[in-house]
# Entry
Amino acid sequence: MVRLVDISTDLGDIASFLKRNLQIRDICHALLYQKIIEKTAMERGIKVSAEEIQIEADRFRRAQRLESANSTLAWLNEQLVTPDEWEQGICDRLLAQKLAHVLFSGDVDKYFAEHRIDFDSVLLYQIIVPHEKLAIELFYQIEEEEISFYQAAHFYDIAEDRRHRCGFEGRLYRKGLKPELSAAVFGADVQRVLRPTQTEQGHHILMVEQFIPAELTEELKKSIIDQLFQEWLASELNYLK
# Structure
């Protein structure tokens, strides 16, 4: 039984809510993934120590500014989680990380070499507007310096957050771009505004600030391991069906 304010609910209510909102499948898959992880880790002798759990718990408390045992307990109570459940959750995450590293750290270099082009990236600005006529008008106004790219993004982009950033999208990998945009972006000149390209999102006016060649950083290594691990979990689950 779970009690929030003056309203009580039980696990049956929670399950019913998840089903009605089409969330139960994802929850069940996550639970099955955890069982696959536990079974495989046991077979390979992979364990998480109490010291490792404590280190991660301390790191989390510092990040959340939970500076005392009482503040930590109060936070856990707000999350409807006991200390033992919290520590078990930490153990689950660390076990998944350890297993992923054991299974796939040796495959990273080969995967990167085979997919290197996918990890080329770009610092990109873009404006997305809903109509082709507006996109063409803005493109020519920018070309003729009647308005700057950044002003056009601030005034006309369909996304409020991108308007605030004056069109800046940040660093994007080639594989994260739609094919029609990727071809235009990676064939562009730096600081040159590209003619509008249409996708289901709208009409895109693009400008490249910088190309960044692929480099196998520690962050990218972790990302590749995580990707291979998730693909492995999905295949293992599919095998069990």
About this structure: The CA atoms of residues 118 and 176 lie 8 Å apart. The chain has eleven helices and six strands. The beta strands are 2-4, 7-9, 121-129, 168-173, 197-199, 202-212.
